[in-house]
Amino acid sequence: MIHLTVNGKERDWDALPGDTLLDVLRREGITGVKKGCGSGDCGACTVLLGGRAVNACLVLAAKADGAEVVTIEGVSSDGALHPVQESFLEAGAVQCGYCTPGMVLSAIALLARNASPTEHEIREAISGNLCRCTGYVKQVEAIERAAARLRGER
């Protein structure tokens, strides 16, 4: 058993030796965390672990014991989308949607530490999130839009 706070809910979770955080979350029905490559290359499994964007497929569940985890299911508040989610929709930054949860969480982590990122910093922050449908232009635009919104400029 490991103890985690996932999306604001604290509880004990079953974890087998060798389980990754991704294994535990998916087994417990948290499906916004995608299993893509299983080797940390695609970013589909990105979650916020203690506020930092990480690949859940690379984190042993036992190492996350006691931590706070936020998945895409936990970023909206009272039914309202997070400003990053809103911006992704407005900018048309969603294609097939498989990479979107991880991309959104990477953007949230970036904007939590840097309210005014440059385009280069945005591209660097999402560089671990592979998208096969786009050229990242709309995602960068969405993150710039969300940054402005979070700063109260839009």
Architecture overview:
This protein is an alpha+beta fold and 154 residues long. The chain has two domains: 2-74, Beta-grasp domain (Ubiquitin-like (UB roll)); 83-150, DNA polymerase, domain 1, CATH 1.10.150. It has five helices and five strands, in the order ββαβββαααα. The protein has helices at 21-27, 83-91, 100-113, 119-125, 137-150; strands at residues 2-6, 9-13, 46-49, 52-55, 68-70. A five-stranded mixed beta sheet has the order 2-1-5-3-4, covered by helices on one side. Strand 3 (46-49) and strand 4 (52-55) form a beta hairpin. Helix 2 (83-91) packs across helix 5. The radius of gyration is 15 Å and the shape is globular.
Q: State the helix count.
A: 5
Helical proportion, percent range: 25-40%
- CATH classification, class level of the largest domain: Alpha Beta
Looking at the overall shape, the CATH architecture of the largest domain is: Roll
As residue ranges, the low-confidence spans are none
* Name of the CATH homologous superfamily of the largest domain: Beta-grasp domain
Number of domains: 2
Strand coverage percent: 5-15%
Number of strands: 5
Q: In what order do the strands lie side by side in the largest sheet?
A: 2-1-5-3-4
Return the CATH topology of the largest domain: Ubiquitin-like (UB roll)
Helical/strand content category = alpha+beta
Mean pLDDT: 96
Shape: globular
Gyration radius (Cα, Å) is 15 Å
- Give the SSE order as H and E letters: EEHEEEHHHH
Q: Give the biggest sheet.
A: 5 strands, mixed
Q: Determine the N-to-C terminus distance.
A: 45 Å
